[in-house]
Amino acid sequence: MGNRKRVIIPPDLTVKELFDNHPEIIDVFIELKLACIGCPIDRFHTLVEIAEAYHLDPDFLFSKIQTAIKKADQQ
Questions:
Q1: First and final CA of the chain: distance in angstroms?
Q2: Long-range CB contacts (within 8 A, 24+) of 48-51
């Protein structure tokens, strides 16, 4: 448990780039009922913009995504 590496998500990274690099985060979007999966403009929106559009705390969204990525890396 000593390896608690934090996942760095650049704020300008688009949702499409995240899906392409970390498909495991799709479950987070499903859980939060975010309609980004398959959206034709996912290549333009960042996580900050998604959080604003869905009235979510950006830190909450980033945290959920970081947790999903870390969990997938441990498997």
A1: 14
A2: 48/11, 50/15
